[in-house]
Amino acid sequence: MKYISETLMKKSVTVNRPGLMYGKMGIAIFFFHYAHYTGDTLFEDYAVELIESLQEQISQEHVFDYAEGLAGIGAGIEYLAQNKFVEADTDEVLRDHDMLIFHATVYGDHSDVTLLSGLSGTGRYLLSRIARPDCNNFHIPTLNNKMLLIHITDYFERMIPSLKENELEDVYNFLYAMNQSNIYPVKTKRLLKIFSSDNSLTNTDTLIHQSQRKIEILYGDKISGLSSGTEEKVLSKFSPGLYGGLAGIGLYLLSKLDKRHETWMNLI
Q: Which residue of 6, 44, 48, 133 lies most exposed, with the fewest beta carbons within 10 A?
């Protein structure tokens, strides 16, 4: 773990991408977790610096997707606030995010429905926003975000017959999360039944297994069989980001050491 944290500190200096999956947001999340694990506030200070620097990179022309853009960065900020890594009024911090994502969702091109680069990622951001403990139906930002979630669900209903294989899991995961949040329950239950009736799709138990396998492929399989003599050499070749990179590998290892750190997996 020490090698990973030291390497990430060195590599993140040259990272110009602000996003959650491949950039500074994901690296910051690792350092917040690592600070809590070690009790060393130096790592927390460094995570704050990363977030401050990525905020300077965001502009209205920035991309909106989950992997690189506003949806993922916003979901990362919500994650940190809801898990008490930072104290923040996310309605205030994410006000511009909400406005830009509203326009992108209502008026944008949605030919891509995947998590990393498409509409499922937008949905993931919106679901994170309404998961705040103080949200209710008298809360205007929550009402706006729920309206957008309903809009996305209706769009996915029209898209189901034409979804490609690589899109099915992401759309199913979104609908499952919608159902768990009890938003638009009649529609989401009906759509989940349509998915479940298709032999190429799966029940909840298999879905959980697929999610766990995804984590193992991205992180566990990459470091399995490493010996102390090869660890540094192999790990040095990975990119610094969260999605399959050093930040994600570090979080994966932290989760093995202390299950309280497993919450980050909900971001993948």
A: 133
